[in-house]
Amino acid sequence: MTVRVGINGFGRMGRLGFRVGWDNPGYEITHVNEIAGDAACMAHLLTFDSVHGRWDRLITTDVNTLRVDGKPVGYSMHKTPGEIDWAGMGIELVIECSGKFKTREALQPYFDQGVKKVLVSAPVPDPAIFMTEGTATSKKTRARTTINLHFLIMIFLLCLDSFKLPAN
Q: Rounded distance, CA 110 to CA 117, Å?
């Protein structure tokens, strides 16, 4: 079963998560939200990375779409996650890479929009799951699960095949 993924925040962490997750057959990246630039700007930054080098993919754009090797990925420029119809796009998992939404209250709009899981790439003060150096502990939340990778997003995405997200 393929998990539909959205990314909020397309800075270095968001673009790295996109690159690594793109080739994972268990995940389909279907939407990106970034307020700092249009799709054409983000396509350029996705293609040319000063640390990770050039990504060998054909990336084209129009106003609301990135196309990677011809496959469309929705693109928006909303300030808050609550403005995006994540569930309407069938997105189950959002990778939160903006660095702005780190508390349960700030993350709640994702869940209000129907997202099942949120993976946060920044330190979260009150995580439901906290991962460090390959160790995971879990606390159940009443409604949904929030995941904190604390700068381990790349390692996590590479290991997603062996890591099962907790069921609701």
A: 9
C-alpha distances in Å from residue 35, one per residue of 20, 65, 76: 22, 14, 8
Give the three-state DSSP class for 95.
strand
**Is this model's pTM higher than 0.85 or not?**
no
Distance, CA of 44 to CA of 105 (rounded, Å): 33
Structural contact between residues 41 and 64, judged by C-beta atoms closer than 8 angstroms: no
pLDDT tens string 56-97: 999 999 989 999 999 999 999 999 999 999 999 999 999 999
Domains of the chain: 3-119 (3.40.50.720)
* Nearest one of 46, 50, 39, 42 to 21, comparing CA atoms: 46
DSSP letters of 154-166?
A: HHHHHTTTT-PPP
Strands 145-148 and 129-132: parallel
Tell me, rounded to whole angstroms, the distance of Cα 113 from its chain centroid.
Answer: 15
Question: CA-CA distance, 68 to 61, in Å (whole number)?
Answer: 9
Bridging pattern class, strands 65-68 and 71-76? antiparallel
Q: What is the pLDDT of residues 99-147, one digit of tens each?
A: 898 888 888 899 899 998 888 888 777 655 443 333 344 444 333 444 4
